[in-house]
């Protein structure tokens, strides 16, 4: 009868050791990786490549590690500090102290708890980056509920996108701390606070690589025309047919010179009228079978569409416009506007 | 088919098979001889290539010496060939790189691997050496199952894995044992670097 242990693991050939670890259940693989540097390297060698991570720092810290098709791990730290809806901490902000343990979830299901008393939050992040072969943090959402901004900055010194709520106050505070973020994502938690929307022009005029706004944010044509970003995603934009036309004409005359990729969900008050949208614009239909993707940017999958309509800027730069209708109703229009500027 | 009835035969015990299939003869490092069907051999990439390269006829198989497998003992090889005979004709799985790897241990394999750790270790080595993909998968899965629900500290005990400190100490000891002078030179070089120089010359 076999013993419930196998003390000869590291004396097996390397491929067999890898095979053993590959056959483990996901929480056991994470547990195995935490034994030593060598075991972490074995897990790294399995080549599980995750997408860039998402980090949420609220009254707890969640690191979300997702895989293209399969689902995601959520590594949760500081569960004991957790504040529930409406609760406010009465303590001064704390540094991200060594969390002691981590709770692991696969999608929504809790699958394990792992102790590592001597690991700082930075050590945990380094470990997660190592075993999932992913050095990048895609987005960080920080709410100053329990933890100090400085310690969050020190723990996550590199990030691609900062995710913030759309108040002016929040924007000023966040940009002071995380001024190294290349990209910004604005969300609006409370749709009743219309007075908070003055932030959009401030963000659009900045030279971010990417600016993304979610639904329920009112953005005017003027805001759109000052946009200085390279990648623009707008979750909800209200525009008239004439406004649509003006935006395209202004781009052709040199507005938004840095734009490379645009993905906007556009709502027009009246049904979308292409005669008005294209009025006075010299254009050419692109072949239906032409795949429009970006071959130069890291975000090459950000936009991908076939066909479209080519328009030309005054300096000869071509942009392909693609409109996809969702609700061709009689009284209002709803479409996706995609724009890929050749660069 | 039960483990006991698997058709691997020790030469001194079994009669020559009546079927006209080709049965190759192999010899373990402790001089135990086995007859294994051509179809069963296909489970092992290494042996399959070997016999293909040899191009033996039925007469060669009988008249020439058994093919020696020098790294594997008779007890292990018997398990290997029992497994191969039981699974002969089955498709060899292709590793699609997915993690975790989904491996089911069939009842026959579970019984076959109801052995002590020392023998299981040898079986994995043999499966790896002979490149028997599915036997390697199921035997590794058996070892992987020992990790189920364990904390890292428990896993360390289950697999008797060294800590980082122990790894470091072992590495240092190995370096010193290999070449004490090289270590001295390295220390001297580091000392010179600290003093501002970057060369011995």
Automatic annotation (TrEMBL), chain A:
<protein>
    <recommendedName>
        <fullName>F-box domain-containing protein</fullName>
    </recommendedName>
</protein>
<dbReference type="Pfam" id="PF00646">
    <property type="entry name" value="F-box"/>
</dbReference>
<dbReference type="InterPro" id="IPR012885">
    <property type="entry name" value="F-box_Sdz-33"/>
</dbReference>
<feature type="domain" description="F-box">
    <location>
        <begin position="6"/>
        <end position="56"/>
    </location>
</feature>
<dbReference type="InterPro" id="IPR001810">
    <property type="entry name" value="F-box_dom"/>
</dbReference>
<dbReference type="Pfam" id="PF07735">
    <property type="entry name" value="FBA_2"/>
</dbReference>
<dbReference type="InterPro" id="IPR053222">
    <property type="entry name" value="Zygotic_Embryogenesis-Asso"/>
</dbReference>
Automatic annotation (TrEMBL), chain B:
<dbReference type="InterPro" id="IPR011333">
    <property type="entry name" value="SKP1/BTB/POZ_sf"/>
</dbReference>
<comment type="similarity">
    <text>Belongs to the SKP1 family.</text>
</comment>
<keyword id="KW-0833">Ubl conjugation pathway</keyword>
<dbReference type="InterPro" id="IPR016073">
    <property type="entry name" value="Skp1_comp_POZ"/>
</dbReference>
<dbReference type="GO" id="GO:0006511">
    <property type="term" value="P:ubiquitin-dependent protein catabolic process"/>
</dbReference>
<comment type="pathway">
    <text>Protein modification; protein ubiquitination.</text>
</comment>
<dbReference type="Pfam" id="PF03931">
    <property type="entry name" value="Skp1_POZ"/>
</dbReference>
<dbReference type="Pfam" id="PF01466">
    <property type="entry name" value="Skp1"/>
</dbReference>
<dbReference type="InterPro" id="IPR036296">
    <property type="entry name" value="SKP1-like_dim_sf"/>
</dbReference>
<feature type="region of interest" description="Disordered">
    <location>
        <begin position="166"/>
        <end position="201"/>
    </location>
</feature>
<dbReference type="GO" id="GO:0016567">
    <property type="term" value="P:protein ubiquitination"/>
</dbReference>
<feature type="domain" description="SKP1 component dimerisation">
    <location>
        <begin position="134"/>
        <end position="178"/>
    </location>
</feature>
<comment type="function">
    <text>Probable essential component of SCF (SKP1-CUL1-F-box protein) E3 ubiquitin-protein ligase complexes, which mediate the ubiquitination and subsequent proteasomal degradation of target proteins. Regulates cell proliferation during embryonic and larval development.</text>
</comment>
<feature type="domain" description="SKP1 component POZ">
    <location>
        <begin position="26"/>
        <end position="88"/>
    </location>
</feature>
<dbReference type="InterPro" id="IPR016072">
    <property type="entry name" value="Skp1_comp_dimer"/>
</dbReference>
<protein>
    <recommendedName>
        <fullName>Skp1-related protein</fullName>
    </recommendedName>
</protein>
<dbReference type="InterPro" id="IPR016897">
    <property type="entry name" value="SKP1"/>
</dbReference>
<feature type="compositionally biased region" description="Basic and acidic residues">
    <location>
        <begin position="169"/>
        <end position="194"/>
    </location>
</feature>
<dbReference type="InterPro" id="IPR001232">
    <property type="entry name" value="SKP1-like"/>
</dbReference>
């Amino acid at each position: 009868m076999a013993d419930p242990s196998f003390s000869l693991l590291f004396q097996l050939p390397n491929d067999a050791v890898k095979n053993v670890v590959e056959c483990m259940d996901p929480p056991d693989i994470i547990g195995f990786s935490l034994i030593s540097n060598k075991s972490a390297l074995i897990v790294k060698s399995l080549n599980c490549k995750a997408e860039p991570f998402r980090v949420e720092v609220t009254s707890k810290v969640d690191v979300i590690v997702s895989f293209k098709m399969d689902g995601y791990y959520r590594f949760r730290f500081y569960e004991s500090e957790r504040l529930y809806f409406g609760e406010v901490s009465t303590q001064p902000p704390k540094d991200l102290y060594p969390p002691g343990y981590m709770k692991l979830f696969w999608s929504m299901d809790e699958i394990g708890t792992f102790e590592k008393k001597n690991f700082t939050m930075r050590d945990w992040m380094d470990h997660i980056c190592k075993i999932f072969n992913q050095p990048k943090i895609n987005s960080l959402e920080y709410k100053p509920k329990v933890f100090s901004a400085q310690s969050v900055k020190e723990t996550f010194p590199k990030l691609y996108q900062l995710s913030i709520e759309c108040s002016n106050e929040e924007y000023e505070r966040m940009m002071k701390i995380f001024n190294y973020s290349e990209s910004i994502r604005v969300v609006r938690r409370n749709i009743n606070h219309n007075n908070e929307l003055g932030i959009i022009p401030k963000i659009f005029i900045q030279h971010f690589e990417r600016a993304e706004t979610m639904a329920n944010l009112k953005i005017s044509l003027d805001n759109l025309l000052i946009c200085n970003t390279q990648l623009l995603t707008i979750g909800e934009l209200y525009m008239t047919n004439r406004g649509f036309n003006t935006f395209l004409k202004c781009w052709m005359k040199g507005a938004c010179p840095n734009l490379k990729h645009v993905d906007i969900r556009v709502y027009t008050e009246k049904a979308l009228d292409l005669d008005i949208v294209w009025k006075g614009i010299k254009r050419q239909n692109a072949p239906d079978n032409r795949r429009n993707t970006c071959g130069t940017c890291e975000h090459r999958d950000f936009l991908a569409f076939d066909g479209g309509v080519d328009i030309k800027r005054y300096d000869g730069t071509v942009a392909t416009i693609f409109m996809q209708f969702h609700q061709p109703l009689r009284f209002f229009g709803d479409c996706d506007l995609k724009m890929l500027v050749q660069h | 088919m039960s483990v006991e009835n698997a058709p691997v035969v020790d030469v001194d015990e079994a009669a020559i098979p009546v079927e006209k299939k080709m049965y190759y003869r192999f010899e373990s490092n402790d001089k135990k001889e086995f007859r294994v069907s051509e179809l069963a051999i296909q489970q092992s990439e290494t042996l399959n290539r070997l016999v293909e390269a040899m191009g033996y006829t039925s007469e060669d198989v009988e008249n020439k010496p058994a093919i020696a497998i020098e790294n594997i003992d008779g007890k292990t090889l018997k398990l290997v060939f029992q497994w191969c005979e039981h699974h002969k004709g089955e498709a060899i799985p292709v590793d699609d790189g997915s993690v975790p790897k989904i491996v089911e241990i069939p009842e026959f394999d579970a019984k076959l691997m109801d052995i002590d750790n020392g023998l299981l270790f040898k079986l994995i080595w043999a499966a790896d050496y002979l490149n028997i993909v599915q036997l390697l998968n199921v035997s590794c899965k058996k070892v992987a199952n020992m990790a189920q629900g364990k904390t890292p500290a428990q896993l360390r005990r289950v697999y008797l894995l060294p800590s980082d400190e122990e790894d470091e100490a072992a590495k240092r000891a190995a370096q010193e044992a290999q070449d004490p002078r090289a270590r001295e030179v390295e220390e001297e070089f580091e000392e010179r670097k600290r003093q501002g120089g970057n060369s011995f010359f």
